[in-house]
Amino acid sequence: MAPPAFDYSNRRVVIQHGSIFYSPNCSRPVNIPQEPVHSSDPFRWQRLDVSMFKQPVWWDQNWAWQSFIPLAPSFLFAPFEPLCAMPRIEEVRFSFPAPSGGMVTQIRFRLPEDDIRRWLWAEDLLVKAAYELRLRYSIPGNTPPRPSSFHFDRAHKSHPIAKRMACLARDWFAVWMGYLSFIIAKSENRVAKTAPADPSSAAPDWYSYLLKQPEFDELWLNGLSQSAVCTFDWKTPRAGIIFQWSVNDRDREPIEWYSKHNIPLWFIWSNREEQAIRNNTDLNFLRPPDDLIREALNILFAAPGLPLAGLIIQKYFTLGDDPITNKTIEFLRLQYAPTFVFEYTAKRFVNQEALLQETEATADARLEVFKVSRDNSIKATAHAASSYPYHGLSATAAPHAALSVQSQGVPATVRETGRNYNEFFAARDKRQQEMIKLESAVDRQRRESREQKPGVVNATLFEWEKTQSSGGLELYKRVKVNKKANKTVFHSYRSHQRLFNAFSNEWDLREDFQFGIVDNTSYSDDGYDSGNDDVYPVNTVSQPTKAPPSAAPMDIDMGQSWCEYSRAPLETMSLVYGYIPHTGVNDIPPTLSWERMLNFMGFVRNLEELDVGKPERSAMMNFFTAVLNAVGTYKSDKVVAKNFENLSLLFQFEHVRRPSEDLFVFSSPKSDSCCWVLGVHSATAALYVCRYILENPMAHTIVTVAHRLLDRGIPFRTLLPLTCSPRQVTITEPYVPRSYRLSDHTFTKADFDVAMLACRSVLSSPQGRAALLQGGIVGRIAREYVSKDGVLGGPSIEVTAHRVGYLVPSGDNNVKFCDDQLTANEVAIICGTYSLHTPYKGQVAVWTWFPPPEVWVHNRTGCHWLDWTERCEDIFQRILTGIHDGTGRPRSTTQWLTHLRGQNISRVLVKHNDVRLQQFMDAMVPIGQ
Fold first, then answer.
1. Angle between helix 308-319 and helix 339-350 axes, rounded to 10 deg
2. Helices 776-783 and 870-884 meet at what angle, rounded to 10?
3. Is the pLDDT of residue 267 over 90?
């Protein structure tokens, strides 16, 4: 295995217990535990909590699997779907015979029985999978306690205790996810005791082996393979491992193995490692930069009024390395320090001689106080950096983009939303004030009516949850509620925890909102139940005293038509194709009827409602024929060129930048509510923007234009100019199969539901907003889950803090235009992709529930319009109808091309229009402008 290429530019060095620790692949604040003298059971404590296992662990053959524990796993996958909802705690009356005769009745609290069964089912399958694979591959390691050891399956004496025990148990599933992750990662390089489970299968051996077991089906395994259990990338932060690489251990996995699986590595840096690198220069990739070490030392030595560097040097030479007399070795042990550390500390000592004399008498006492303060600070910072609520904890959820509540290192001018929800709402109000200026009379009347009487059933509800970015920064995300559960979810919040937005007809809900008069009555959630108090006789009779509210089903309700496509032929002809109204009839006779022309422009139903006045209709039909004719046809080119002449006189093209051939950037008309600029990737889209701005140049802003592109499903980017290093480039991640089926598998709606759970998980990530920006089929799918505010708020923290996404040169030194970007793997998950294998080794087909974007826009299909047309929506709804009635199936690329094949005239129309518009933009906005 080749040594990893570590990039130390954004990594971390920490100093704890007198030693220097560094990580070549992690920048998260951590709390390094003391190195254990001997192996001991970390689960021996009575009151366990998953937060106790989110810090790096020292390598031990029995417990190294803890390094794989995910910090914030998503439950939006089939094996963990029962955990997505936090069940209601129900009140139960227990009746049992008393020793003296008669019946005794007591009130207790518990989860509903159906939820208990589902949680136990999830636990049993997870434990069984780990047991089977560990035996098959002879993988060492001790097993953690089960989630049910927290007694979520029992009744408790109070509501707060029942709720707390359920929360502890649910969170504990993350420990088992880490345990199974480790086993699956180890299985990759282990030879099974028996023959391969399925030599002809393209799936991993562990997958094929479990598939042969009666307990596991393809739906469960498919969800598992796409979940955090099998996701070993930088977007799935894990606890991490600690060891001294200069000390050989034949049982320990190599550095490269941990790096390959994106496990945070923490190494000791001492004179032993320094000498090892001197002896073998091939180990240079393991040398931490001096700048990182200097930064860590400066932080350590920054104790106010305490000459720590001087004390360390002074006591080292007078007291040596005795931990009883020399209190400074708890901060830095010079006996094992590398050369640079020793020399740098000595330089600081030279400048502290006077202060040393002043503090000599109180040094030990002050060191003790400083140690306690520093240890507490390290623990608090590390706990905050690893404590993220898990994704998908609402059965009614459909995710939305994230907004930053902790953005250290991110310039204020480029933060997506700010540090709290008030900043998000203020930014949203500012954007909507710009859009209200363009509001129609009908839209204004509807908005004012909603302000007077806010609705719930037909509104869109968002619950707010916390999550984390790939780099460990804390985020909020808005989670869309399934409309079937609107009333239930709405009434579970108090009045001050709800905020209505009449412009977008949306409710925002969160328990720590404070809008209006605050109702302070609440349950106390303190308490921990050991299980000793709640032992009831076997013959108890339990009956809920009141029916718990029914949870909204985990269903993908995508059958609702999206009606924001254009139903205005004149608007489409003008903005997409460049027709100028009221210019009269040209001398090119039409070759198609009005209805046929509308069909080829993407209109489908009730065409009689789309008629316009006869003179205008004739002129539009003539212009349509001119655009349809081949480029180079004199009369047609002349008609189109006339419209271009008018546009070149009206629009200031010098304000459009073109840093590359396929990127046009608009920085005006400026908006006071955003700091990004708008980018599009085609001349057709660029001219759509120009024409739309000219409809109302005094009122339009970048935000109103972007809002229009979102409405019409036109791809664009919200580009943020940011300083980037040459190493920071657009993220690429080629498609790697994660979902497997046999070629003769019979697909059902259950397969689709599992695929859409994975889709929702991708869209719940901060960069999920890029799906809506992408437009086309991916944007349409994202429309069901992601709201426009996630796009209009600008690039996510993945871009602003971590520089991960779409990064292209802007033409200005080291400044790049940056935006969120989906990888090929993420797009494949959104479209519901499978790898189908046959009994013949090497023959694998790729099938998808929805057409991949490259197929959707293929020149053989009839879907390559600039905007999302009525015909696009019709195709999308027919796909969904087939899935829901059981006739729809995934298709291969070839099958999708055949299914989507459009009429030739539509394809010719789009092609000839694109060619002419490209020629015009090449002349008006040359590359490099």
1. 110
2. 60
3. yes
Q: Which residues pair with 742 in a beta bridge?
A: 837
Residue 353 sits at φ, ψ, to 5 deg, of: -60, -45
Cβ-defined contacts of 518-523 (< 8 Å, 24+): 519/494, 519/495, 523/159, 523/160, 523/163
What tokens were used for 219? 């739906």
Strands 506-509, 460-468: pairing is parallel
DSSP element (H, E) containing 223: helix 218-226
Nearest to 924 by CA among 658, 731, 706: 658
User: Helices in 454-552 by DSSP H: which ranges?
Assistant: 486-491
Angle at 394 between CA 238 and CA 480, to 5 degrees: 105
CA distances, 418 to each of 405, 465, 507 (Å): 6, 16, 20
Contact 74, 382 (CB under 8 A): no
Integer distance in angstroms from the first to the last C-alpha of the chain?
46
What is the residue whose two structure tokens read 């069940």? 87
Give CA 879 to chain center in angstroms.
26
The percentage of the chain sitting over the pLDDT mark of 70, rounded to a whole number, equals: 88
The pLDDT assigned to 388 comes to: 56
Work out the number of other CB atoms within 10 angstroms of the CB of residue 182. 25
Q: Distance between CA 801 and CA 411 in Å, rounded?
A: 9
pLDDT tens for 315-365 read 888 888 887 888 888 899 988 899 999 999 988 887 777 777 777 778 888
CA 101 from chain centre, in angstroms, equals 60
Q: Please state whether 505 falls in left (phi above 0), alpha (psi between -120 and 50) or beta.
A: left
Would you say 714 and 688 are in contact if contact means Cβ atoms under 8 Å apart? yes
Q: What is the 3-state secondary structure (H, E, C) of 754-810?
A: HHHHHHHHHHCCHHHHHHHHHCHHHHHHHHCCCCHHHHHCCCCHHHHCCCCCEEEEE
Query: If you average pLDDT over residues 61-78, what whole number do you get?
Result: 90
C-alpha span between 278 and 264 (Å, rounded): 25
Lowest average pLDDT, out of 289-298, 346-355, 709-718, goes to 346-355
- Per the CB < 8 A criterion, the answer to whether 772 and 794 are in contact is no
* 401 has pLDDT over 80: no
What's residue 299's pLDDT? 92
DSSP secondary-structure letter at 722? E
Residues in Cβ contact with 40 at an 8 Å cutoff, skipping those fewer than 6 apart: none
Of residues 755, 580, 652, the one with CA closest to residue 227:
755
CA distance 316 to 807: 50
Give residue 824's Cα distance to chain centre: 15
**Measured distance CA(581)–CA(623) in Å, rounded:** 10
Arithmetic mean of pLDDT over the chain = 85
Query: Could you tell me if 849 and 755 are in contact, meaning their C-beta atoms sit under 8 angstroms apart?
Result: yes
- Asked if residues 720 and 797 have their Cβ atoms less than 8 Å apart, the reply is no
CB of 239 closer than 8 Å to CB of 178: yes
Compute the distance between CA of residue 605 and CA of residue 592 in angstroms, rounded to an integer: 18
Residue 645's alpha-carbon distances to 61, 578, 624, in angstroms, are 75, 11, 18
Counted residue by residue, the chain has a size of: 929
| SS3 of residue 128 by DSSP | helix
Measured CA to CA in angstroms, residue 109 lies from 44, 94, 118, 153, 213 at distances of 28, 10, 18, 11, 37
Query: Residue 608: is its pLDDT beyond 50?
Result: yes
Cβ neighbours for 591, distance < 8 A, ≥ 6 positions apart: 625, 628
Helix, strand and coil percent figures for the chain, each rounded to 5:
45, 15, 45
Both tokens of 666, joined, read: 């608009």
Gyration radius of the chain over CA positions:
31
Cα distance between residue 155 and residue 111, in whole Å: 8
Q: Is the CB of residue 588 less than 8 Å from the CB of residue 626?
A: yes
Q: Which amino acid is at 190?
A: R
pLDDT > 90? residue 27: no
